[in-house]
């Protein structure tokens, strides 16, 4: 799924500039529950 990298890259550039670090690399990890599993969870907890 595409992610708007512009926001992430802007954030990373700000951190790089404010920290004084050079040659900065970063990784972004997103975790969560897919819509189908979320619906199943809500249905199971409704009883």
Produce the secondary structure layout.
Layout lengths: L4 H15 L15 H11 L2
Walkthrough of the structure:
The protein has 47 residues and is mainly alpha-helical. It has one domain (5-45): Dna Ligase, domain 1 (2-Layer Sandwich), CATH 3.30.1490. It is 55% helix and 0% strand. It has helices spanning 5-19, 35-45. The longest helix has 15 residues, at 5-19. The two termini are 33 Å apart.
**CATH topology group:** Dna Ligase, domain 1
Stretches with pLDDT under 50, minimum 5 residues: none
Q: Cα distance, first to last residue?
A: 33 Å
From the coordinates shown, what is the CATH architecture?
Answer: 2-Layer Sandwich
The major sheet is characterized as:
none
Beta-strand content estimate: under 5%
What is the total number of structural domains?
Answer: 1
Shape label: rod-shaped
Sheet/helix structural class: mainly alpha
CA-based gyration radius: 18 Å
Total helical elements = 2
Please trace the helix and strand order, writing H or E for each element: HH
Share of helix, binned: 55-70%
Name of the top-level CATH class: Alpha Beta
The total beta strand count reads: 0
Mean pLDDT: 85
Notable characteristics:
mainly alpha, 47 residues, 0% strand
What is this entry, summarized?
The protein has helices spanning 5-19, 35-45. The protein is mainly α and 47 residues long.
């Amino acid at each position: 799924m595409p992610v708007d990298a512009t926001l992430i890259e802007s954030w990373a550039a700000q951190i790089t500039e404010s920290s004084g670090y050079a040659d900065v690399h970063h990784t972004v990890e997103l975790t969560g529950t897919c819509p189908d599993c979320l619906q199943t969870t809500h249905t199971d907890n409704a009883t």
